[in-house]
Structures are given as structure tokens and as C-alpha cells.
Amino acid sequence: MAPGSRKNVAWPAHVVRRHARTTALAPLLMVGIGMLGTNPDWFPAALILTALTVALAIAVLISTATKGWVFFAGLVLGLAVTLGAGLVFQAALMQSQGQRTEVRITSVHTTEGKTGPIHHCRLKRTDDKPMDHADIVGLGCNRARVAGTTENLLVDPSGWLAPSPTMPTSAPSPSASGESASRSGCGS
Predict the structure, then answer these.
(1) Cβ–Cβ contacts within 10 Å for residue 160, how many?
(2) Exposed end of the chain (fewer CB within 10 Å): N or C?
(3) DSSP labels for 160-187?
(4) Could you read off the pLDDT tens digit of each residue along the chain, which spans 188 residues?
(5) Phi, psi values for residue 92, rounded to 5°
(6) What is the dihedral of CA 104, 122, 136, 39, to 10 degrees?
(7) How many Å apart are CA 125 and CA 132, to the nearest integer?
């Protein structure tokens, strides 16, 4: 066998069991961290935990993967699970309990970041109910926003997720539906 070759390496039984447990628990840990990262308050902690979990996954993959493609496939799959779980959780939570809410932009200010200006918007519900995560930074807040304007946002009543823009509804115009009904002979 050539020096540096990892083929036919006999791992002790306790090492194999430890790697098997770590490998089995890593996806569950990654899903949990992805879900934790959807809350703006917990995002920094989730980012650090993601980096540590990916480092652990890389260490396990390096020690167990005998071929290069297994390592890269495991790495891509691990990152997809971590990032995808949070996105799916966020979309499902907003779909099930998100409420369209009218909010007023109370203030807009800009700070200078490393790559350019960073815009900050402060929001308040127009019905004066309290709202979690009322500060929007960067995405969703830009220079065109003016304090005092109102917008419709999708708000999570449990307060876990930050407000997000609502999708515009594309309802057919009344004149178009009336024309199609009269053409088909279904009109009055």
C-alpha cells in the first residue's frame, strides 16, 4: 500500500460508533440551528453554531470519507440542510400564522458600512398593538422609504419572525372578468 493511502484502514470499533453517532445527530443539529437562525434575536448565535457544526461535519467527513466526491457531497448536503431548514420553517410559519398588517414607517436613517450605506427603518403598527422586531435593517429598507408612509407587511403574531413584505395579489380586473363572462354567454 502506498504511503498516504487511506484504503483498507481498519478503524477501532469505538471510533466507528462515535463517528456513527455524530453523523446521525449532525442533520438534526443542523435543522435545529437553521430554525433558530430565523429569529433575528438568535441569528448571531445560530451563525456561530452553524460554523462550529460545519467544522465538526468537515472533521467527520475528512476522517471517514475515502473518496473526494463523498466529502464534497456531504459538505454540500450539510449546508443545504442547515440553510434549507430555516428557509422552509420561515415560509411555513408565515404561511400558517402570518397576518397582513398595516405599519407606519416612523423613522429612516442611514449609516455608513464597509461596502456602502446601510439603511435602517423603524416600524410601528397603525393599530398601536406592540410589534416585535420593529427595526428593519438593509433588505426591505432603502433610501426611497419616507418616514410617515404606511405599508402592508406580513407579521408573525408570535413574534418569532421579523416582518416581511406581502406578496401582491393579482386579482383580475372587474372589466376583464365581465368581458369574458359576456363573451361566453354566462353574463346576465
Answers:
(1) 19
(2) C
(3) -SPPEEPPPP-PPPHHHHHHHHHHHT--
(4) 455 555 556 677 787 777 777 777 777 888 888 888 888 888 889 889 888 887 877 777 777 766 777 778 877 887 788 778 888 988 888 888 888 989 888 888 888 888 888 888 888 888 888 888 888 776 667 777 778 888 888 888 888 888 887 765 554 444 444 444 434 444 43
(5) -65, -40
(6) -100
(7) 10
